[in-house]
Amino acid sequence: MNQKSLILIGSLAVINSTPVTALPPPEDIPEEVMRTQIITEGRSPVDGRLVSPEEYAEIQAQLRENPFPPKLNPAIQEKIFLLELLRFIRIVTPF
After folding, report:
1. Is the pTM of this model over 0.85?
2. Which residues contact 50 (CB under 8 A, 6 or more apart)?
3. Is residue 45 a contact partner of residue 63, using CB atoms and an 8 Å limit?
4. Residue 37 clears pLDDT 80, i.e. is over it
5. Is the CB of residue 41 less than 8 Å from the CB of residue 53?
6. C-alpha to C-alpha distance for 73 and 81, rounded to whole angstroms
């Protein structure tokens, strides 16, 4: 055999010896299975803690009933206003 064929065979042996990682790990749950699962717990939209379905429904009802948003700290309100003002100025000015 010539030298080129030996290099080709050697490089194929190296390529075939590397493990293939195209498949997900076996402990990963397939998306099709996850779509059929019933979610029995959720997160509170107020503070992010885990809640039961009954508590989640109660929180959603309370949020729907309250027409006024919760009060923010005046310092935070001022910062939000300044950020919105800055965003408006950036839109209006070209630089």
Report:
1. no
2. 41, 42, 43, 44
3. yes
4. no
5. yes
6. 12
Q: What is the pLDDT of residues 39-83, one digit of tens each?
A: 777 788 888 888 888 888 898 888 888 777 778 889 999 999 999
> Are the C-beta atoms of 43 and 60 separated by less than 8 Å?
no
At residue 35, φ and ψ (nearest 5 deg) are: -65, -30
Residues 6+ apart with CB under 8 A from 51: 41, 42, 43, 44, 59
Please enumerate in sequence order all residues whose Cβ is within 8 A of that of 52, keeping only pairs 6 or more positions apart, or say none: 40, 41
Pairwise pLDDT comparison (81 vs 36), residue with the higher score = 81
Question: Which sequence spans correspond to the domains of the chain?
Answer: 21-92
